[in-house]
């Protein structure tokens, strides 16, 4: 009788994925340091290509702000992405879009332009959200060979049957 009163069934409850919270500060500091490394590379290239009398010290004195800016953008992106993911408890492309928007807004604020900040937010947020939506790959994961592309592009001959091969003798 208890089975007849039981209204819960295992088929009625869909399995939900369990969200794993991200360590926000650890992720932000790691991405910030990686971005600072990229900023150091860009600063070195700027220093090498520019004409000045600072010498090698110009890497830090003249174009060193690039290092801090890249680090700030990377840390802002990572912190925003992980905080949004932890608040929503969902790991999807909207988290990356929010992080990209925050990093783009920071780039516009550095240029001291609110319209540029809003536009950078929209562009960078859209670009990173799209990249995350595509599975974090720019190129397709299944790369087909030249022969496979050729077979797919050109028409394939119809298969012939045995009745078509032997003409009727009338």
How would you briefly describe this protein structure?
By secondary structure, the chain is mainly alpha-helical. Helix content is 64%, strand content 0%. The protein contains eight helices and no strands.
Percent in helix? 55-70%
Distance between the termini: 79 Å
Strand content: under 5%
Number of helices, counting only DSSP H or I runs of 4 residues or more: 8
H/E series? HHHHHHHH
Mean pLDDT across the residues is 84
Main sheet characteristics = none
Low-confidence stretches: none
Anisotropy-based shape: elongated
Number of strands: 0
Radius of gyration: 28 Å
What structural category characterises the helix and strand content? mainly alpha
Question: What would your notes on this structure say?
Answer:
With 170 residues, the protein is mostly helical. Helices cover 64% and strands 0% of the residues. The protein has eight helices and no strands. Helix 2 runs antiparallel to helix 4, helix 4 packs antiparallel against helix 5 and helix 5 packs antiparallel against helix 6. The longest helix has 26 residues. The radius of gyration is 28 Å and the shape is elongated. The termini are far apart. The mean pLDDT is 84.
List the SSEs and their pairings.
Elements: H1 2-5, H2 24-49, H3 58-61, H4 65-88, H5 93-110, H6 114-133, H7 146-153, H8 162-165
Helix pairs in contact: 2-4, 4-5, 5-6
